[in-house]
């Protein structure tokens, strides 16, 4: 695993010849050695379909390829950085929260409307995160940004986890998500507790939740 | 009984077994099991509490969370501190109160001049009974003990809560000269005397008396 946590807001990645990694453009803080940074015209790799998907999805946070031999430090906006390791599974994360990831991971986009029907479509509007999300799959690790600290909550079959859409950061594993409401109609019209909608995640995997309801 | 535990320093996990807690509106970040969220108009204490709150401006948007499972709370990535109450009373600014066990009584109390200087209104929230409370601070809070021999003076902006048998008074540490020109930025303090504990945060809100 080429990533290492320096502190809660910075990660260090080791690059060796023949290996590469991707990061959000402008997220490099410092580097040692011979390292080159090449902007990607479209985020990550994954061929034409991914490119088209990205254009349509608006999941087009500018990315760059990092190659060479040395170590690179990444961080962005003073946000908390969380390292997530993948062992053959898929991570779903909003593109603007993705700081850097191993070049060995394959990247794609997922249409969230296909999960949970109409409520899936509403999800993007409520969470302000759009209808598409970025996926990373394979073996390797990714650095993800959050406001405040992050907690990891396990999702096990029969015990779904409900997350405030604004506090949701990312999830991995075999997980379905849909928008749910914890209120009756009466509660919605008059007396909101401020917890009208949640993302319901079920299946098996884990969800990352930030200690804040602020977007990045 | 509800169990409060910290998960990291910024997330509070509350395990519920059919009982309820009161929490700041909108502070839930996740839950499992079954939970119901209900807004408490006025923040407890029935109609009287509601009227007091309206008059005092100590508006506490509170919800009742009831259920079976674990509920996680957080607010704007602020640090969370757990306070245990054993039949005593906690005074806390409503903006710093995150969550309290449902069995605890909440109310309001007149703070005198202190509120005026700290820009937090003349009233503060009280939590009374036996159980756990989670309060928020900007940076990790420190707990300072006050004894009859050792009174304590606190910057109004750094004060977040206190408990025990304490009298508080507002004091001005300035002479006319320092007031007009050479202020050290520490014009006002709250002085605590008696026997109890004061929670202080390592940050100052912008206050009338403080160095803004």
UniProtKB/TrEMBL annotation, chain A:
SUPFAM superfamilies attached to this UniProt entry: TRAP-like (SSF51219)
Q: Which segment of the chain is annotated as a signal peptide?
A: none
Q: Which InterPro entries match?
A: AIM24, AIM24_sf, Trp_RNA-bd_attenuator-like_dom
Q: Which domain of life is it from?
A: Bacteria
Checking Gene3D superfamilies in the record gives:
Mitochondrial biogenesis AIM24
UniProt-listed Pfam families: AIM24 (PF01987)
Query: What's the protein called, per UniProt?
Result: DUF124 domain-containing protein
Lineage runs: Bacteria, Bacillati, Actinomycetota, Actinomycetes, Kitasatosporales
